[in-house]
Design a protein that fits this description.
Its cofactor is heme. The protein has 20 helices and ten strands. It is an alpha+beta fold.
Length: 516
């Protein structure tokens, strides 16, 4: 056969293949236009996430642009690669999706292949439908307010180790300490003791097994950002690129840990345990799948991910704002001193509950920088949304199954319609006199409805203990000539907030920086 025929045949096949790929990637790009819905014009192939894929912008930047360009729209059409989505900003619609018609938006819109990642794909975050409901029912008792209150001694022990680390490394040696790293050590130590009954040695060993396995899971890289985008945009891509969060090495660590704890508790059966791990063992009586140590290991990974990393981000956010505002620092210290005097110098659960200004400081920090950028939900049942006025037509939009609903929490928390001076850190917003004026459906640092963050109670308790310990005992400033901002990183790991820079701290004994 002449070479030119072979060449032309190959060229034709390549052209056809290219055209098929083009159609696959752009097939839905008229979806919102056909429905007369305001939308962000998609770019060829990438939809509306080209800048995220190329790591030019964060999702926070993109949602901010939508807020600016579609100022009064209740919702805006968006394309997650080739997948149609709606960015909603109307409080009533948010309540509808998260609570009132939750059964129509049951599932998180993240995909992780069970074949590729059989470990984390079975976590409550990725499980859907009845599997999620059953798993949530199984695990909720371990994170109830009463159970978290019983962890008070664990938090105090973690604080003792935190003090020892600061005195050794920051007070005596005058070293600068990275705030995020300090928070990670604390949450890792507290999490392992609270949920597994074992010490992580996070403060006294830089090569702690738990810190190292955390780095395997909580990685921030171009690869992890691309994987996160695949998980929310396209099941085919997530499967083809073999996207996973937990690799075999990390899973083997937690499986080995589970076996060791089980053997230890079987041998030392004279001790009474009332922790997360013991609860998992108790589930074997009702749920046969927990007789398989692999399933126990999977849930250990889940609770470690939620309690160690996400909580560390929350503490970083809260402490950053308190350190940045000396007047807040001093007022909070005064409240802590006053309340502790009332309780004879003892930090108790009741004392912490009386610290109203502490609550205000944390709530306002989480308004300015929510620990999770955004929420993704998939529509599972056809649902009608009222047409936006920009459509200039009556009736409603039929949201079809498979459409992803995006709630940009970070941007809603900074919306001038709901918060005066939204970029100003003002804890007084959450005073008894003013917090009642906050419109419902505009503040949700942990989400809302049945799928609200399961670890909320643990996270808040950990944040409070950490802040009390530092503000009461030390004067803290950012290193000289620093100009830190809580600017979101362009990369993402799921929807957990990541920051562009480290925040280096100088510690001093109380009274050295701030005159009392």
């Amino acid at each position: 056969m002449p070479y030119f025929i072979i060449f032309n045949t190959l060229l034709l096949l390549l052209t056809i293949l290219t055209f098929i790929i083009y159609l696959y990637l752009t097939w839905n790009y008229n979806y919102w236009k056909e429905r007369n819905i305001p939308f962000v014009k998609p770019s060829l192939i990438f939809g509306n996430i080209k800048d995220q894929i190329l790591m030019r912008k964060s999702f926070s930047d993109v949602f901010h642009e939508i807020y600016t360009n579609f100022n009064d729209c209740k919702y805006v059409g968006f394309y997650l690669w080739r997948k149609p989505a709606l960015v909603i900003r109307d409080p009533e619609l948010i309540k509808m999706v998260w609570s009132k018609q939750f059964s129509n938006f049951y599932n998180n819109a993240w995909y992780l292949s069970e074949k590729v990642d059989p470990y984390f794909s079975k976590s409550p975050f990725f499980e859907n439908d009845e599997k999620w409901k059953e798993l949530r029912h199984q695990l909720t008792p371990t994170l109830s307010p009463g159970r978290i209150k019983s962890l008070f001694p664990v938090f105090l022990q973690g604080i003792d180790e935190l003090h020892n680390f600061i005195k050794k490394n920051a007070i005596n040696d005058k070293n600068e300490i990275d705030l995020r790293d300090l928070c990670s050590k604390y949450t890792t130590e507290v999490s392992t003791q609270a949920f597994f009954g074992v010490k992580a040695h996070a403060f006294d060993n830089e090569n702690s097994d738990f810190l190292n396995v955390g780095k395997l899971i909580f990685r921030n890289s171009v690869r992890s950002s691309f994987e996160s985008i695949c998980m929310m945009c396209d099941k085919l891509f997530a499967h083809y690129f073999r996207v996973k969060i937990v690799n075999e090495k990390a899973f083997d660590f937690f499986k080995k840990l589970a076996v060791e704890i089980m053997e230890y508790r079987k041998t030392n059966n004279n001790c009474q345990y009332n922790d997360y791990f013991e609860h998992l063992l108790g589930l074997r009586e009702t749920y046969k799948e927990y007789e398989d140590v692999n399933n126990i290991a999977r849930q250990l990974i889940t609770v470690f991910f939620d309690s160690a990393d996400t909580t560390a981000s929350g503490i970083t956010i809260a402490m950053f704002q308190i350190i940045r505002h000396p007047e807040v620092y001093k007022k909070l210290r005064n409240e802590i001193d006053t309340i502790l005097l009332k309780y004879n110098g003892q930090l108790t659960v009741e004392a912490i509950q009386d610290m109203n200004y502490l609550d205000m400081c944390i709530s306002e920090a989480f308004r300015l920088n929510v620990p999770l950028y955004f929420s993704l939900r998939d529509c599972t049942v056809p649902t009608e949304f009222p047409m936006p006025k920009e459509a200039q037509t009556d009736g409603s939009l039929l949201v079809e199954p498979g459409i992803t609903i995006i709630v940009p929490m970070h941007e809603i928390h900074r919306d001038l319609k709901y918060f005066n001076d939204p970029d100003v850190y003002d804890p007084e917003r959450f005073s008894d006199e003013r917090k009642s004026t906050i419109q419902k459906g505009t503040y949700f640092p942990f989400g809302d409805g049945p799928r609200m963050c399961l670890g909320k109670n643990f996270a808040i308790a950990a944040v409070k203990h950490f802040i009390i310990a530092l503000v009461q005992n030390y004067d803290i400033k950012f290193k000289p000539n620093s100009n830190y901002t809580l600017t979101p990183n362009v990369g993402i790991m799921l929807n957990v907030v990541l920051f562009k820079q480290k925040f280096m701290l100088n510690f001093a004994k109380r009274g050295e920086f701030y005159v009392e």
